[in-house]
Amino acid sequence: MTLPSRKHGRRRRAAEAAEAAAEAASAAASPSAPRAQGSVVQASVYRDGRKVTSPGTLAETYRRLRDEPGGMAWIGLHRPSEGELLSLAAEFDLHELAVEDALEAHQRPKLERYGDTLFVVLRAARYLDALEEVEFGELHVFVGADFLITVRHSAAPDLSAVRRRMEGNPELLALGPEAVLYAILDAVVDGYAPVVAGVQNDIDEIETEVFRGDPAVSRRIYELSREMVEFQRATRPLVGILHNLMAGFTKYGTDEELQRYLRDVADHVTHTSERVDGFRQALTEILTVNATLVTQQQNAEMRALAEAGFAQNEEIKKISSWAAILFAPTLVGTIYGMNFDHMPELHWVGGYPFAILLMAAVCTSLYFIFKRRDWL
């Protein structure tokens, strides 16, 4: 993919305004200003794949690039101010919609072409071992004929390794800003590999916790499922972005080496996207299994409680039966123990044997009644 050269007349007309804006932005980022540290991580000018200079400010970068015909500027920014982005827009003729997206962040991965400039939004990811979480970062890339601008709004991805890699390969860097773009794409996609490995390990642990009956596993499944949704949002659009870039090979005369490079990146991101889809499916199935196991455990607990209640009822029946049997002679004895004068049984010779026989008859009757009803 070869991007058309910008008109130098347009650059000259905007040069003074861009330099003024860059100087104002640099002043705003100086130690004496409220902004404690400038957002320019590194800015370098290259020619024929080799670094010419590394200016300290945007204004100086503009001047050095204009002094290097055929050169390329690679500017890396981290959380830039509005003034810095407006300065870049004035110097490199960036579209206002792309600048607005880069300033506000929170964009979906996408590829847009604004005239001679490509605007690419990428979502990087990294796995935090200590927290067992996936952290996502956002990267905006402006690609022109002789410049490449990266805007980061988070710690990830770290592009210093990409810069070292490209500077160590002058032949690849000499292919221009599109070669740097593909190297950035490759770094972002390679950064997904540790995340995939970490998530796979988490899923293995979750499966063990599910069958062990860990009560906290449901929350972990839910949180990991949400992270996989974010991961899908990062990887799925990237597949389309790479296919769109590959579709422009013939139209823009992309170098053969870059074509192979891009196809390799596309293969990796497709594989990653498929793995993420598999993770979501696996988590859904694990959540279903966990719900089934929890239901089975609850049913077992309810059955155990029911059995305990039944056993308790049986004991109460026995106790109640014996209490009723023992209550009958107590009632008869209590009546005969009142010793009233006008109780004929008190003066009857057979009164005592009759009372004993009555108690025995009542107790025996109650015993057989309760026995027949399985209370005893």
User: Termini separation (Å)?
Assistant: 94 Å
- The ordered H/E elements are HEEHEHHEEEEHHHHHHHH
Mean pLDDT rating: 82
Low-confidence stretches: 1-37
| Quantity of strands, as a count | 7
Largest sheet: 7 strands, mixed
Arrangement of strands in the largest sheet? 2-1-3-7-6-5-4
Description:
The protein is α+β, with helices and mostly antiparallel strands and 376 residues long. It has twelve helices and seven strands. It has a seven-stranded mixed beta sheet with strand order 2-1-3-7-6-5-4, sandwiched between helices. Strand 4 and strand 5 (117-128) form a beta hairpin. Helix 8 (192-212) runs parallel beside helix 11 (256-336). The longest helix has 81 residues, at 256-336. It is rod-shaped.
Quick structural gist:
By secondary structure, the protein is α+β, with helices and mostly antiparallel strands. The chain has helices at about 10-30, 60-65, 80-90, 95-105, 160-165, 170-175, 175-190, 190-210, 215-245, 250, 255-335, 350-370, and strands spanning about 40-45, 50-55, 70-80, 110-115, 115-130, 135-145, 145-150.
